[in-house]
């Protein structure tokens, strides 16, 4: 019988949604190629001048998953240089994030609910128990940047549907 | 010691994020009033012509939570008529959704991981076990419409930051 735990509530979810995100980015790249537009018109696009561009949305989604899991599990994560700008590079960053997530055993996450996690919030830091940290900080943050990536592409006319976001990697 | 379960992974998360969403909508309403613009310019705004307008995004976020919980828990949920269009009415819909969520006991959700859930997907239906349904369908769907609501307001210049989305109801 399946059970629900800090592991089942995090790693498989990130894996599923990051694979879908990679599929969404592939559709963005294909759109640019088909329309003969510079792909950077999409990857640098912001929904508002003081919002982050698409490429940064993807990097932050990846790091929300990677750093969230690293802090809770204690399994050290590689540090990346944030130099990805093209669709191909962003998909590579997702793959590197997936590689890290696959290296974290369930035993490192399960039973961590009450562990105190201190994490940076802007120039300050905040401390929460791991369960609240995962469910009310890491997950909402991860989804924020994943959905905003989708919304940027959709706003620019890329032919995407919610199914691409929910299950695109299974198509 | 805290444990993680189908209940802790769903109801408290929906409650937290819906309260933040209500706060985000209040900022949208305040923005319209301060700038003396018709609030419906915001509530009817779409990020692309074939995307849903803000008001529908809010209704679907509410129903993702309500119907997801109802299907898994078996606790009957009220049906709403989807007539809300103003910021005040949308905040009311969130409150009605919160009232339903508060009525669902942990015992109705915990241990449901393997329960088969059949749910509508467009004109068809799909069946998944409750754990996969919650984590790879209901939650991503809920976040999709919550974040898109935020993105629509942000795209229209409403002064919001990620903190409003993550923790706005606690301010």
Element order, helices and strands of chain A? HHHHHEEHH
Query: Which structural class do you get from the secondary structure elements of chain A?
Result: mainly alpha
**Count of individual helical segments of chain A:** 7
Residue share in β-strands of chain A: 5-15%
- Which chains make the largest contact? A-B, 39 and 39 residues
The outline of chain A comes out as globular
| Unreliable residue stretches of chain A | none
Strand order of the largest sheet of chain A: 1-2
Tell me the span between the first and last alpha carbons of chain A. Answer: 28 Å
Q: Could you state the oligomeric state of the chains shown? A: homodimer
Mean pLDDT of chain A equals 97
Task: Determine Rg of chain A (CA atoms, Å).
Answer: 16 Å
The overall strand count of chain A is 2
Q: What helical percentage do the residues of chain A reach? A: 55-70%
The largest sheet of chain A is: 2 strands, antiparallel
Description:
The structure is a homodimer of 171-residue chains. The first copy, chain A, has 171 residues and is mainly alpha-helical. The longest helix of chain A has 26 residues, at 130-155. Chain A contains 7 helices and 2 strands. The two termini of chain A are 28 Å apart. The first copy, chain A, has helices at 11-35, 40-43, 54-73, 87-102, 106-109, 130-155, 162-167, and strands at 116-121, 124-129. The interface between A and B is large, with 39 and 39 residues.
